[in-house]
């Protein structure tokens, strides 16, 4: 039977009772034990560590030269710019974490201010090459489960780990793809282009986002965060030149700070595409 790399990623993301410690909750995060039937069925297979190891080892050798990024959805009026000339797609990851915000008071007129994001990145390079449709749906499925933590310390988590995403300041998203098992480099970036995540219309991404909202999935109450093109800051020696955040699920803050005071998190997931 063909084993999908995307299913392997979901095996790590999905079984929250095994892989995730309880997460901090806010008024915007109310984790529940209910899972959709479609998501739960993904964990029915036995994911042997040796199989996961083989997938991880193959990740850097999968041919992604013909992979096309979903720069827009059928429901989107605009699309993100294509990668710059001369760049090559070299790595794809699924990110699962939180978009972070703050409110200075309970104002119904003030909008939450962004404080960056924190996410764990899981290797999805082979999934992009072999199971693109499932990869595009993976963030929406992953959002329905608790965030996996390093405290789980399971081998499967380590094998599929690409690295970590966080912000070094308010405007600098940082990607660290150097871990104990591999050295794939780092990149400090800045936003180059943005389009709203599909939320209506007939496109696949729009349908997924609508279902998350209708199902009351935590993090999806206010729609999904934008799709982005990020450009590397001008630092010598960095291989990664552009990073795309696509297929977002959740992550948007409410329109105003009404009822919210201080820092808060909104859970999200997305695919990240690294160009060198």
Automatic annotation (TrEMBL):
TM spans (from-to): none
Signal peptide region: 1-20
Keywords per UniProt: Signal
Alphabetical list of Pfam families matching this protein: DUF3455
Domain of life: Eukaryota
Name of the protein in question: Malate dehydrogenase
Source organism of the structure: Phyllosticta citribraziliensis
Lineage: Eukaryota, Fungi, Dikarya, Ascomycota, Pezizomycotina
């Amino acid at each position: 039977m063909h084993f999908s790399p995307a299913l392997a990623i979901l095996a790590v993301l999905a079984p929250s009772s095994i892989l995730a410690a309880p997460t901090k909750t806010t008024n915007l995060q109310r984790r529940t034990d209910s899972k959709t039937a479609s998501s739960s069925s993904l964990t029915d297979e036995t994911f042997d560590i040796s199989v996961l190891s083989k997938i991880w080892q193959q990740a850097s050798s999968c041919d992604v030269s013909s992979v096309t990024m979903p720069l827009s959805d059928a429901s989107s009026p605009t699309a993100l710019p294509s990668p710059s000339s001369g760049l090559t797609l070299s790595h794809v990851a699924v990110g699962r974490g939180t978009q972070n915000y703050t409110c200075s008071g309970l104002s119904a007129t003030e909008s939450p201010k962004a404080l960056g994001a924190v996410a764990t990145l899981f290797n999805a390079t082979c999934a992009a090459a072999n199971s693109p449709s499932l990869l595009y749906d993976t963030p929406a499925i992953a959002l329905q489960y608790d965030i996996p933590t390093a405290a789980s310390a399971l081998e499967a988590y380590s094998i599929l780990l690409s690295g970590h995403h966080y912000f070094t300041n308010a405007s600098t998203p940082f990607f660290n793809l150097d871990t104990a098992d591999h050295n794939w480099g780092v990149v400090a970036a800045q936003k180059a282009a943005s389009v709203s995540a599909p939320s209506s219309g007939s496109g696949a991404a729009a349908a997924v986002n609508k279902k998350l909202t209708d199902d009351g999935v935590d993090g999806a109450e206010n729609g999904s965060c934008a799709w982005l093109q990020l450009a590397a800051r001008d630092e010598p020696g960095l291989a990664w030149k552009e990073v795309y955040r696509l297929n977002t699920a959740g992550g948007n803050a409410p329109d105003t700070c009404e009822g919210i005071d201080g820092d808060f998190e909104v859970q999200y997931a997305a695919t990240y595409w690294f160009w060198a």
